[in-house]
Design goal:
oxidoreductase, globular, Short-chain dehydrogenases/reductase, mainly alpha, NAD(P)-bd_dom_sf, about 270 residues, binds NADP nicotinamide-adenine-dinucleotide phosphate, 3-stranded parallel sheet, Sec_Metab_Biosynth_Oxidored, oxidoreductase activity, 10 helices, Rossmann fold
Length: about 270
């Protein structure tokens, strides 16, 4: 686990390491993990320009005002948008890094998957899709992270059995398992800004790797590969790396990408926007 003080000390160096006017986009920045990370970014950067997307105009206005108070020199631009047309995006986003498992290619939407299988399936699909994107954009770093269990608005729209189960469990046990919001925000800001998670090509102006640590192991098992699958602790578990290696060996990455493209085409009518 990367210790919180190391993360905080890295974040404290952001203002001196990143140039003024950093631009960030948060899709889903009006609640939960997105909101706290956005605010952490706003409070640690000089003259940031932050775009954030969500459906709630009320939350958008509130957050822009709060950020302006926190860092008056920044620009905070709310973009109201509903991504729900691409429903599968929402489903896919419920998987999260470090939990990769097998993929059922006969049921890519995991409609018939059991709860234990579901997470590994969805998480692997996300990471393999990120690997495909990283090939096209090798100067960009991609991170699929499980944020831990963070108190948020994620269960507001509970609409299926899986999420109801999660809702009940958290209601009963939440206070013992939640990652504190402040810690979660610090850890996500670290992922966004530290040179521990570089792109596969090109040099980014990032905060140098904390002393005594090294560049993170990527999802393919090699250090600094440009695609990272992480637990909230900042670790990349061996079994996730192994599961992905098995899937790649069977060409499942291609299957996932072809499926993703077919869904975009089915929904939007075009292959790319
Ligand atoms: N919290 C956890 O413990 C946890 C654990 C594992 C994984 N995750 C994953 O982490 C991500 C963030 O979760 P969270 O807990 O921060 O959830 P959250 O509090 O519900 O935040 C979700 C964000 O996404 C936006 N959003 C949702 N549907 C949208 C749509 N159709 N169009 C546009 N924006 C939309 C929401 O904004 P509006 O409401 O304004 O639209 C909000 O800003 C999710 O992918 C979740 O599955 C969370």
């Amino acid at each position: 686990m990367i210790a919180l003080p190391d993360i905080q000390s890295s974040n404290a160096r952001i203002t001196t390491s990143l140039s003024e006017g950093s631009v960030a986009l948060f899709v889903g920045g009006t609640s939960g993990v997105g909101e706290i990370t956005l605010k952490q970014f706003a409070s640690h950067t000089k003259r940031p320009r932050i775009y954030f997307v969500g459906r709630s105009q009320e939350a958008g206005t509130r957050i822009a005002t709060e950020c302006k108070t926190m860092n008056p020199e920044g620009e905070y631009i709310f973009i109201p948008a509903d991504a729900s047309l691409i429903r599968v995006v929402d489903e896919v986003s419920r998987g999260a890094g470090g939990h990769e498992g097998q993929i059922d290619t006969t049921d890519l939407e995991a409609r018939k998957a059991s709860i234990p299988f579901y997470r590994g399936h969805i998480t692997s699909m996300t990471t393999l899709a990120l690997e495909h994107l990283a090939e096209q954009a090798p100067t960009v770093s991609f991170i699929n992270v499980h944020p831990g269990i963070v108190k948020s608005g994620v269960l507001r729209e509970t609409d299926n059995l899986r999420m109801w189960v999660v809702w009940i469990v958290l209601l009963l046990l939440g206070r013992w398992v939640y990652v504190p919001e402040a810690e979660s925000a610090e850890r996500h800001l670290f992922l966004l800004t530290s040179a521990m998670y570089p792109a596969s090509h090109g040099e980014d102006a990032e905060v140098s790797v904390p002393e005594g640590m090294s560049v993170a192991r990527g999802a393919d098992g090699s250090r600094g590969s440009g695609v990272y699958s992480m637990l909230w602790t900042g670790e990349s578990p061996d079994n996730a790396v192994q599961a992905l290696a098995g899937l790649r060996a069977h060409g499942i990455g291609e299957v996932v990408w072809r499926y993703t493209e077919s869904q975009f085409k089915r929904i939007t009518g075009v292959e790319s926007i």
